[in-house]
Amino acid sequence: MHINFVGNLHRSDALEASERAAAWLLKRGHTVAAEPETARRTHLPSVSADAFGEADLVVAFGGDGTVIRAAHLASEQGTPILGVYYGRFGFVTQCTGEEIYQVLEAFFSGELSVERRMMLEAELLRGDRPVATLQAVNEAVLQRSVTSRMLTFDVRIDGYDLTRYPADGIIISTPTGSTAYNLSAGGPVMDPCAEALSLLPLSPHTLASRPLVLSPSRVVTLTVQQGDGDSVLSTDGAQRLHVLSGDVVRVRKSPRVTNLIRVEPNDFLIKLGRRLLWGQNILGDEPR
Description:
Elements: E1 2-7, H1 12-27, E2 31-34, H2 36-40, E3 57-62, H3 64-74, E4 81-85, E5 95-96, H4 100-108, E6 113-126, E7 129-136, E8 139-144, E9 151-157, E10 160-167, E11 169-173, H5 181-184, E12 197-202, E13 212-214, E14 220-224, E15 231-235, E16 239-243, E17 248-262, H6 267-274
Parallel strand pairs: 1-2, 1-3, 3-4, 4-5
Antiparallel strand pairs: 6-7, 6-17, 8-11, 8-15, 9-10, 9-14, 11-12, 12-13, 14-17, 15-16
């Protein structure tokens, strides 16, 4: 099999682990390469970003950001991704550095399944013409630029005028992204294997605002009112586009998916408790 690597460029332990894993794989007759930035910091051969997804498996050494980076490189081809935890949070990583060899053996023998994670497609329209299209694993965010005051966002769903928010911005997240920016902003937590859209205003100046969970077939259209000021469209906190007053942002379910190797079937539920302290007894006594 051919395996491509991507590593956390700021973690020497992650890069060293990728080199050890490459040596282990090469001894067993597999071929290995790495995306250009990871290759420059290791002794691994490089594969271009365009060809990165043409592999049997992608291994991401890092935290959630590294897995998301791998997804942006491999989701068009649907290549399965194994996230190896070398980070701070690791909600979408599937194993630790000590477990990787056992997990790889299980993958090669066909013992592991794949989780399909829904993605978003965000399209920027200017004068009814598409300017750019972005893909997101976690979320698409339309928010005011640093120098702008609070903006007014018109929200339409499937062409229906739903509401108007005076706010700092709006987050549209996937179930996978529900434990990322959406969670910090007070949005709902969703099972990452579900398919849905979460619509959440950021700092709305109203008492009537609530998060809204929508069917994955819905198309959400966002517009900043004319004259309010400029805003920024970002996806997964990485790609950013400058949005002018009057531009339209259209967000829908993407035709792409992120395929993650499933190691522990209850991984999401376990991490709710261990990483998010879900259900922790704040009284300090034993549960009844």
